[in-house]
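Is this the right way to post structure tokens for a design question? Let me know if I should format differently. Anyway, here goes:
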């Protein structure tokens, strides 16, 4: 235990003060992120939407994320990551306050589109900020620290959210989410104001920066990540419904099960990433391994006799997430050195927005038309397609690295 604790704390050494502030801002923001994990249940139980309607609301959620990520990448390059993040946090907080009073289907669709568009302005901006405040050798661990803050917030958020729903109803979630976003904005002003923060890694622009839209291998990588996202987002839409409708779990039990994901990541992801870096794990191979584990996790939904299998499935999916996402983020940041970071990371964020557009609605429509079992089989098939694309990317990156090695020798 002493060795584990010593290794755990050592994995945090060397990260800049600004990265720690970014992590705290993220924690404050995500600790209040209670509406999103319960969104499908809120629409189904509180507003009495059909499964089909829930799927379309989730699609609007995804289109909002796509628009916000695209605009956030542009703003990050135009006005800087600091202003972009601040606008996003304050605007999202106000949006949550107002959204609780909207109940009609089309108004909900438009409202969530606008809310998520504002919220996701900050996604590429956070990546650019993280790159600026991190030394090159610390970027993967810095990304992991931010993910740790996100998942620590998500581990507390769903559990507390379940208590709030049981105590005062769904509307309480909107107030908590709004307050947390605005609080994170004020924390940003007091800690990462450009006059107070120190940039560690200044971006040196090349003479002819490459557009991410012309980087073929990067685009294929993002398509694979988008397919990965289609599979992964089921844990925030169809899986909670499966827990309740098929396995008869309460909102509190669902919150605790979803919270287990964040708790595991909080305890083990940073030491795992530090270990992987010491062992020299390939970034693309790690993404492939994580995708395989996430696909395998759906097998546990076919066994309905034991609730313990749901826990095992969540653990397997979490392990896949822990391996894939930090290295996927790091690979995208490394590739972004070819051009403008805001544009590259905006496109990276948009790949997950596409996952929200197609993932939630596809899952809902499959459940509504066929069954949960067919949905899980379909998601495992999507996993196989994403794997084929990632193996192609791995082969190309190897050729690219070999070419660079030959050039350096000459």
């Amino acid at each position: 235990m002493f060795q584990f604790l010593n290794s755990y704390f050592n994995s945090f050494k060397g990260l800049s003060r600004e990265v720690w502030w970014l992590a705290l801002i993220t924690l404050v923001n995500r600790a209040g992120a209670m509406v999103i994990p319960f969104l499908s249940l809120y629409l189904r139980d509180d507003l009495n939407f059909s499964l089909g309607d829930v799927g379309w609301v989730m699609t609007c959620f995804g289109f909002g994320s796509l628009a916000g990520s695209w605009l956030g990448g542009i703003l990050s390059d135009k006005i800087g990551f600091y202003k972009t993040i601040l606008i996003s946090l304050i605007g999202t907080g106000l949006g949550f306050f107002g959204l609780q009073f909207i109940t009609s289907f089309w108004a909900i669709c438009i409202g969530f589109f606008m809310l998520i568009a504002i919220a996701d302005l900050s996604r590429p901006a956070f990546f650019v900020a993280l790159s600026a405040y991190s030394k090159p050798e610390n970027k993967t661990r810095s990304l992991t620290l931010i993910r740790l803050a996100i998942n620590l917030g998500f581990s507390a958020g769903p559990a507390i959210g379940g208590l709030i729903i049981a105590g005062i109803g769904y509307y309480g979630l909107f107030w908590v989410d709004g307050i947390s976003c605005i609080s994170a904005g004020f924390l940003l002003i007091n800690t990462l104001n450009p006059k107070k923060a120190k940039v560690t890694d200044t971006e040196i622009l090349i003479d002819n920066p490459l557009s991410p839209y012309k980087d073929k291998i990067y685009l294929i990588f993002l398509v694979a990540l988008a397919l990965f996202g289609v599979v992964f987002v089921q844990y925030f839409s169809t899986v909670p419904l499966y827990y309740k409708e098929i396995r008869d779990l309460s909102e509190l039990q669902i919150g605790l099960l979803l919270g287990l994901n964040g708790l595991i990541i909080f305890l083990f992801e940073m030491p795992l990433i530090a270990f992987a870096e010491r062992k020299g794990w390939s970034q693309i191979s790690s993404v492939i391994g994580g995708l395989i584990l996430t696909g395998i996790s759906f097998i546990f939904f076919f066994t309905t006799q034991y609730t313990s299998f749901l826990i095992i499935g969540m653990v397997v999916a979490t392990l896949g997430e822990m391996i894939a996402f930090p290295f996927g983020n790091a690979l995208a940041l490394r590739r972004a050195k070819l051009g403008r970071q805001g544009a590259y990371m905006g496109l990276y964020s948009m790949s997950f927005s596409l996952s929200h557009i197609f993932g939630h609605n596809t899952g809902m429509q499959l459940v509504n038309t066929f069954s949960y079992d067919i949905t899980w089989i379909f998601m495992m098939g999507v996993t196989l397609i994403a794997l084929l694309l990632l193996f192609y990317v791995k082969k190309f990156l190897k050729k690219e690295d070999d070419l660079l090695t030959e050039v350096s020798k000459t």
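Format looks fine. Someone answered above. Worth noting: Residues 372-409 form the longest helix (38 residues). The CA atoms of residues 99 and 398 lie 48 Å apart.
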